Amino acid sequence: xxxxxxxxxxxxxxxxxxxxxxxxxxxxxxxxxxxxxxxxxxxxxxxxxxxxxxxxxxxxxxxxxxxxxxxxxxxxxxxxxxxxxxxxxxxxxxxxxxxxxxxxxxxxxxxxxxxxxxxxxxxxxxxxxxxxxxxxxxxxxxxxxxxxxxxxxxxxxxxxxxxxxxxxxxxxxxxxxxxxxxxxxxxxxxxxxxxxxxxxxxxxxxxxxxxxxxxxxxxxxxxxxxxxxxxxxxxxxxxxxxxxxxxxxxxxxxxxxxxxxxxxxxxxx
Length: 269
Known about the structure:
Elements: H1 12-30, E1 46-49, E2 54-61, E3 66-75, E4 82-91, E5 95-97, E6 116-120, H2 121-131, E7 133-134, H3 147-158, E8 165-170, H4 173-179, E9 183-187, H5 189-199, H6 215-222, E10 225-232, H7 236-247, H8 255-266
InterPro entries: GmrSD_N
Protein name: GmrSD restriction endonucleases N-terminal domain-containing protein
Organism: Acetatifactor muris
């Protein structure tokens, strides 16, 4: 009877070498898509790579596009963690310098979140005509857009350019019975009011009103893709946080108006 061949167990170094070779093989598929590096490391440098505990550059390949890292990683092992040695072969963009003073605290507004969904201009207009939108809650500014601003918005639609996101506050059933409106406009007041004005033939674009448009141009207008978020079951304090968060970036509204909204928020603390 033939004896069963017993495979020799690999040493730690042999296992590490296998990991390294697998990594080198896999990186070949990514190589055509790796851009020219904008920063470099040297062999022996300690670097940061993902959640790996320790990483040291062992080799540099393809003019700095790829790094071979000898690492110390941690296995959680169901609550009984242990460290082990391993290799990683990584694109340069995933290898970062070690930072010893990473004690920043920039994050804000993590208690508020907006989930956007894909919609159309027609669907947004329907919310106004069928359910009602309050354009003048006490935190909103007035109507400040001029004719040129409105024409630029319509120009973007007919040229298939993104016109930004819209945020609505979904009013509670109790408030709906009291106010007869289902929504408040939190972000996008000037844009949405312009869309309504054009749709109602109160605003012309290049001398033409909505009713004057061809069938194709009407479809381009009503079917233009937009992103909409609806905030439900929230209190006034959170609404004001949303408002300030959305209007502090980009070319925002007048700073004095934002200061007034901040005072409203501070009064609720």
